[in-house]
Write a structure and sequence with these properties.
About 30% of the residues lie in helices and about 20% in strands. The strands form 5 sheets. Strands 1, 2, 3, 4, 5, 8, 9, 10 and 11 form a 9-stranded mixed sheet that branches. Strands 16-15-18-19 form a 4-stranded antiparallel sheet. It has a two-stranded antiparallel sheet with strand order 6-7. The protein is α/β, with parallel strands linked by helices. The longest helix is centred in the N-terminal third of the chain and has 21 residues, at about 30-50. The protein has 10 helices and 19 strands.
């Protein structure tokens, strides 16, 4: 939970996608949807690199940069995603997941957030989802889904499964969530539930928070009293208490509204309030601000992940996931124009979210990050396939 949200952070919310059409249109062949996604990601990444100080840069375009595997470009821009001035979580690193599972035993609802432009957050959600499944949680609700999402019970993640799920780490998370046996739940506001286009940003947020709660009640909680659900949200939706917004007043976010509507006190976990000061995650109930003061968050717990570090322009948390550096096959290296490299399992068609996606400009030699297995690697530009596939095996 960002302690002092600002107006431009709201551009990163899913309502931007509803307005801009970044979610693939239904009833369009998945291969065409996939190419539409590529084109959008390339254009938004280029917009970020051309205009890093634009309001959209840290609110929406930065998400595309992470979706094409180039978080390193965020950390070297005029508006970096992480910095040494980030608030520091004050806590310990011992058995974080065990402590959260123990806290979850006292409730039926767990809500955890993420920064949509920091895929590392999804690795922690992934680990928590595994532990909560073993503890009896059966449903997984995500802001990433819309009322158009197929909510498949099994299989790989497809491009029509949502917007944020088009990022490869999220795609792998969602595939594993399905394989664990979670039932997927959509609760995002529909276009019909949104505030009028000319409403101010406070009214737009209020309409969205109200709609999300209504949809959780209608799609899950009224039908299944006592059901145990993990809710994966972005940014401030996890706040259990109204958040001051300066002169604009305060906002009651989704978690606070859901608590009031159900009478259930959820376990709320923020990953966006602060960072760990070292190289391992910490669990906390407070953080140190940049001026050295201690502040509580708006959630039960704060998880501080380490600052993202890089080697060969690729983030180290991917190595901690077990991914290996693999050189891009020479036939796919761009010569005249930028490309996006994608890696999929041989049995997966182009409608599947790739295991890996990498934006490369001419002259860049940056490795792929891949788990063990066999892959088909191809390169694409805004018009379609450039070359490939090339078969590759990672031992």
């Amino acid at each position: 939970m960002n302690p002092t949200p600002t107006k431009n952070m709201f551009a990163s919310f899913f309502c931007v996608c509803l307005m801009t059409g970044c979610t693939p249109a239904p009833n369009v062949p998945l291969v065409e949807q996939t190419q539409s996604v590529r084109k959008s990601l390339i254009e938004n990444t280029n917009s970020y690199l051309s205009n890093p100080d634009d309001e959209m840069a840290n609110g929406f375009w930065n998400q595309a940069v992470t979706m094409v595997g180039r978080e390193d470009l965020l950390h070297t821009s005029a508006m970096p995603l992480g910095s040494s001035s980030a608030p520091v979580c004050v806590g310990d690193s011992e058995d974080i997941i065990g402590k959260l599972v123990e806290a979850a035993s006292q409730t039926s609802i767990v809500i955890i957030n993420e920064n949509h432009a920091r895929p590392q957050d999804r690795t922690f959600v992934w680990t928590l989802a595994r532990a909560l499944r073993d503890a009896g949680f059966t449903h997984y609700a995500a802001e990433a889904f819309t009322d158009q999402t197929p909510l498949r019970a099994s299989g790989v993640t497809m491009v029509d499964d949502g917007y944020y799920t088009q990022e490869p780490v999220f795609g792998r998370l969602l595939q594993d969530v399905r394989s664990m046996g979670y039932t997927l739940v959509a609760y995002e506001q529909t276009k019909e539930q949104a505030a009028p286009d000319d409403a101010n940003f406070m009214l737009q947020i209020e309409a969205r928070e109200k709609a999300q709660v209504e949809n959780l009640l209608a799609n899950l909680l009224r039908k299944n009293p006592g059901v145990r659900v993990l809710i994966h949200v972005g940014h401030s939706h996890v706040a259990e208490r109204p958040v001051p917004m300066g002169a604009a007043g305060s906002i009651e976010w989704m978690a606070a509204r859901l608590k009031a509507a159900t009478g259930i006190d959820p376990l709320t976990i923020s990953q966006t309030a602060c960072e760990a000061s070292g190289s391992v995650p910490v669990l906390s109930t407070s953080y140190l601000t940049v001026d050295g003061k201690t502040s509580d968050g708006f959630t039960d717990y704060l998880v501080g992940l380490p600052a993202v570090t890089f080697k060969n322009s690729r983030p180290d948390y991917r190595r901690r996931m077990g991914d290996q550096e693999i050189e891009v096959p020479i036939s796919l290296v761009p010569v005249l124009d930028l490309v996006v490299i994608e890696a999929r399992r041989p049995a997966e068609d182009e409608g599947a979210v790739p295991i890996e996606r990498l934006y490369l400009r001419p002259g860049e030699r940056i490795p792929l990050m891949l788990p063990q297995g066999r892959f088909e690697i191809s390169s694409f530009d805004k018009k379609g396939r450039v070359t490939g596939p090339v078969s590759l095996t990672v031992d």
